[in-house]
């Protein structure tokens, strides 16, 4: 057997495994999450490692006591209801709630559009027909959770241009939370 040099030169087993790679700068907590996603050891509760899920402050605005018609105008009342706190409106479980920005058109027919911000509650268990944030094969997706006969799960797209995702026992699938609301600005 050839002698391995102590300094410099090629060493057996040294270097990167085959395939292209790219250097990317990430904050250390996010880099750790990325490594765990790659090796498949990431679990739903690990999102707290890099997200601050507690609400930071209260933000309330006055709430008009009457509904605004989208048809013919109606006389407006001169008084306001109590203040509306957006945390109360959107967040039921502050320690288990986070937001994620929607990309893609696969949930268009359920009203989720690119750029919308989905409010996700990790404390809620998915039921058939709800919208979930799932981790499938190491990639996040937002789809309708559908429980089929025999306990099979299908993640349904809400756009006929996108296929549904059938989850089987071999699938690396985990529900990260239930989408409870959407915030849209324009």
What secondary-structure arrangement, pairings included, does this model have?
Layout: H1 28-39, E1 60-64, E2 80-85, H2 86-90, E3 97-101, E4 117-121, E5 131-136, E6 139-147, E7 153-156, E8 165-167, E9 173-183
Antiparallel strand pairs: 1-2, 3-4, 4-9, 5-6, 5-9, 6-7, 7-8
Word description of this protein:
- The protein is mainly beta.
- The chain has a domain at 93-183: Umud Fragment, subunit A, CATH 2.10.109.10.
- It has helices at residues 28-39, 86-90; strands spanning 60-64, 80-85, 97-101, 117-121, 131-136, 139-147, 153-156, 165-167, 173-183.
- A hairpin with an 8-residue loop joins strand 7 (153-156) and strand 8 (165-167).
- It starts with 27 loop residues before the first helix and ends with a strand.
- The mean pLDDT is 79.
Biggest sheet, open or closed, and with what strands and sense? Answer: 7 strands, antiparallel
Number of strands: 9
Proportion of residues in extended strands: 25-35%
CATH superfamily of the domain at 93-183: Umud Fragment, subunit A
Mean pLDDT over all positions: 79
What class, by secondary structure content?
mainly beta
CATH structural fold name of the domain at 93-183: Umud Fragment, subunit A
The helix/strand series, from N terminus to C terminus, equals: HEEHEEEEEEE
CATH architecture group name of the domain at 93-183: Ribbon
**Number of helices in the DSSP assignment:** 2
What distance separates the N and C termini?
69 Å
* CATH class assignment of the domain at 93-183: Mainly Beta
Strand order of the largest sheet: 3-4-9-5-6-7-8
The amount of helix comes to under 10%
Unreliable parts: none
- Give the overall form: extended
């Amino acid at each position: 057997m050839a002698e391995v040099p102590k300094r410099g030169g090629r060493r057996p087993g040294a270097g990167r495994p085959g395939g292209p790679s790219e250097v990317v700068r990430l904050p250390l907590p996010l880099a750790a999450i990325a490594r765990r996603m790659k090796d498949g050891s990431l679990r739903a509760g690990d999102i707290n490692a890099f997200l601050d899920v507690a609400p930071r402050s209260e933000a309330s605005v006055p709430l008009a006591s009457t509904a605004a018609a989208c048809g013919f105008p109606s006389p407006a009342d001169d008084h306001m209801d109590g203040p509306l706190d957006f945390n109360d409106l959107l967040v039921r479980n502050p320690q288990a709630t986070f937001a994620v920005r929607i990309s893609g058109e696969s949930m268009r027919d359920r009203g989720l559009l690119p750029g919308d911000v989905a409010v996700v509650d990790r404390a809620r268990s998915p039921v058939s027909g709800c919208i979930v944030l799932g981790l499938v094969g190491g990639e996040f997706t937002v789809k309708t959770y559908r429980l089929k006969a025999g306990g099979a799960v299908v993640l349904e797209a809400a756009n006929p241009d996108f296929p549904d995702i059938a989850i089987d026992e071999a699938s690396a699938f985990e529900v990260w939370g239930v989408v409870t609301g959407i915030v849209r600005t324009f």
